[in-house]
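User: Structure with heme C, tokens only please.
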Amino acid sequence: MMLDRVLRIVAAALIVGGTLTAHKSSAQDGAKIAAGEVVYNTYCATCHGDGLVSSGQTFDLRRLEAGARSRFENSVLGGKGQMPPWKGVLTSEEIDQLWHYIRDNAYQK
Ligand code: HEC
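Assistant:
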């Protein structure tokens, strides 16, 4: 009986804890997405299009899938084709924010 009560308290605590963690991480993601949009508008929109809508001249960033993070970072840091490298221009925090913004608007979530 006693054990039963303890287990119920532990289970309730886990549920409350889980809910708090989930809210916290989604609020953080929301902040990253918003910050990423600002970074994008500052550095990327001229070539990649307003609101990530590509004119067709450059890579459509909304095509990047969840598993493409390292490809994304390599291209952004090192540059590709007509795109200059962004190493030394963007911080890793800004690149992380860009990634969240792009993924939030991606075709495949
Ligand atoms: C001067 C124009 C220009 C700017 C500014 C620019 N890009 Fe690009 N970007 C390009 C072009 C052109 C390509 C296509 C390169 C190719 O495949 O030859 C490209 C490709 C990419 C790719 C895909 C590379 C791949 O893996 O195929 C990513 C990711 C990317 N850009 C991210 C960004 C981000 C993030 C920014 C802002 C920090 C940015 N770009 C700013 C022109 C630009």
